[in-house]
Amino acid sequence: MPVAIITGASKGLGRALAGALAERGWDLVLDARGAGALKETAEAVARPGARVAALPGDVTDAGHRAALVAAARELGGVDLVVSNASALGAEPLVRLGELPLEGLRRALEVNVVAALGLVQEALPLLRESAAGAVIPVSSDAGAEAYETWGGYGASKAALDQLAAVLGVEEPGLRVWAVDPGDMATGLYAAAVPDDDDPRPAPDSVVPAFLRLLDERPVSGRYGAPALVEGR
Questions:
Q1: With 72 labelled, which of 53, 81, 96, 221 sits at a CA distance of 20 to 30 A?
Q2: Model-level pTM greater than 0.85?
Q3: What are the backbone angles phi and psi of residue 149, rounded to the nearest 5°?
Q4: Using one digit for the tens of pLDDT, what is the confidence trace for 96-152?
């Protein structure tokens, strides 16, 4: 069965996607920093015939990234890497004039450097896969100028550029940067705690990711809402 590595998998979009892939019989290697929440997620998404390895840790740790790939190798290889783990840089978000530079460094380290590091670690196995794919989870904050979202948006813009270049450099793979759109997640609640407007659940955009895996369009940047709507 195909094998996916999903970072930031203990809740939100990562958990929703893990559940959907397990339903399809994928074997999974799941990452998150919280061991308890990750264990609960792994137990919740497990399905007969779908093996799930849960490795708590920080994606900025090179040793942890190597362990994720090693776990996938034991399951048979790597067919998909989903970089979903994200850091905001400040919680709640603040204007650039007030953004702690250490927070910006953390956002860049988690959202960009660690994402590339994991792909580098997995690249030999991805190249061996008959349908190797990389999905960096992006954001519209990486393409639009939203007040207080500057640091996080800059990290996602950098991630988009890495994905675009990787798609050119690795023509045998599919590299899809996916903007999931507005979702009700813990990350958004931490970013803007005073905003209690209703937002779609992460499960609602999972069909967009499944469509990419089914149809395998060319590498590029995709918006999940458009994919869900069939555009």
A1: 221
A2: yes
A3: -95, 15
A4: 999 999 999 999 999 999 999 999 999 999 999 999 999 999 999 999 999 999 999
* β-bridge mates for residue 222, sequence order: 178
Altogether, the residues listed in the chain come to a count of 231
152 is annotated as an active-site residue: yes
Amino acid at 112: V
Q: Which residues contact 140 (CB under 8 A, 6 or more apart)?
A: 146, 179, 181, 223
Gap between the Cα atoms of 138 and 196, Å rounded: 22
H or E, element range at 187: helix 186-191
Catalytic residue among 146, 152, 188, 222: 152
> Using one digit for the tens of pLDDT, what is the confidence trace for 147-163?
999 999 999 999 999 99
Report d(CA 217, CA 170) in Å as an integer: 15
